[in-house]
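Q: Could you fold this chain for me?
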Amino acid sequence: MNKGPVSNFIQHHYRHFNAAALMDAAKGYETHLLEGGKMMVTLAGAMSTAELGISLAEMIRQDKVHIISCTGPTWKKM
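A: Sure. Below is the predicted structure, expressed as structure tokens.
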């Protein structure tokens, strides 16, 4: 996978304690997708409040999220 500026920043700066755990989780997520795994995102409440649909739509287009389960009102036209 191509590394973007956020991935490069995290890889360079997130080396210790909880930050290192985030890096380990990101590597696991990447490996999971590269091996053909699928990702499900579960959310409680409405996604529209923080406009999460914008971020998630891009992740769907990039084949990084495959299923979304949300308890509140979710999508407006993207």
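A (continued): The beta strands are 40-43, 67-70.
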